[in-house]
């Protein structure tokens, strides 16, 4: 019986173990959800690895019990610990909580028997009702303040988060836009690569933004080789009170024809210009006038090495002697024609602020015969002469706009007839010196002026040398757009073959103005003063002139032009005074 008793006991224990294992398995299946809910309420979520570790520990304990290894009695019989919070709502951090597994329900498995019977915590004194009520009220107030602060902090935090998010969004948008711009720039750069000239697209004519022209009625010109030629012709009638501007002249109606042209090269480095004009006057009625005059001049600019620049000029002029000239012959039907061939070659060099220019010039005058009223002619060959001059200019550039300079001129005038018809040896030697200022202020003011002294000593000792002060100027000033004011001055030595006379010095000055009233209407005016000082005799001439005109362009190629002019010569020599007033109306055609 004693042997059977243990066997039955073991059988009952085996059944109990099996039931316990089954219950444990069912509980294990249900426990994760319960543990999760309980742990979430007490201390937050517990990791699933901690739950699985706790289940494995329990299973090992049951397996040991099934094998007959009894767990310590103290552990099995120990009453469950009761949770006593230290304060309302607080969760104690138990020292004996299994930190390895993170479980808050099961004690840590250990073989030490001293840890099986835990010491219960000391019961705390329960506060009185009044004190508890006051404490609860204080706690409520504190919780309310804390809740308000928490809400305020949350609101502030939320606002800060929203502001930060908005700033981040703006920064991200700016960054994205910058990246897009870089990509677009890269694409544009690739698209803007230079194409083959034949493959470039040309915009429509209607859509082109064409720059406004400074002068929409200026001549367009005709392309001829490497030059652009701008020709014009002007035809009109002049009504004058003095046909030939002489003391014996009378009124007349004259037909005037003027031909003008200019040609400018379009070379890349060097440049060339050609200018010319021709004026023909014929009497329609009144005082007989039959004359023609003209000039053509070309200039070539060539850039050489070592900052050298060469300037070459060549010209031809044919002008009849005027009736008011000192060399005019009285009582002739036609004054002699004076022809001039002139040329010059100059070399310029700039060395720092210093500027140097050396110019050599040659001018040859030859005269035709004068036709007398009886049909005979009078030769003027004794007036033919050639003037050779050399001029050295030295300038110092104070600024790009101001360059003062000095000039020295030497020359020799040689007559074709060493002794003229009156028996005088007219050849002479020239010497002159000038000082001036060159201006370059763009469109506002440009040009130069100078003053000095000039002397021509005649070889014939019986004739007085021609000498006197010289004034030269060529200035253009634009006070405002569309207005141009010009000032020109010139000093000329006039020779003569009159017996006992050396010649004279002529000072000529012109003040001109041009105003663009409208795009197709231009006004111009001029004032003139000439002073002629005779050498060897006490004589002088003064000539005053004034002129005003209008030009109205019908279109770019044709326009109407008109002008009025007055001229008056006053002299202390007999038979030279005259006054001439005239009105002109004509049509001008240009290309």
From TrEMBL:
Which stretch is the leader sequence? none
User: Protein name, please?
Assistant: Outer membrane beta-barrel protein
Which residues does the annotated region (Disordered) include? 62-213
Q: Which domain of life is it from?
A: Bacteria
Tell me which InterPro entries the record gives.
BBP2_2
Where along the chain is composition biased (Basic and acidic residues)?
A: 136-146, 189-199
Organism of derivation: Rhizobium loti (Mesorhizobium loti)
Q: Name one Pfam family in it.
A: BBP2_2
Q: Where is the composition biased (Low complexity)?
A: 62-81, 106-117, 156-178
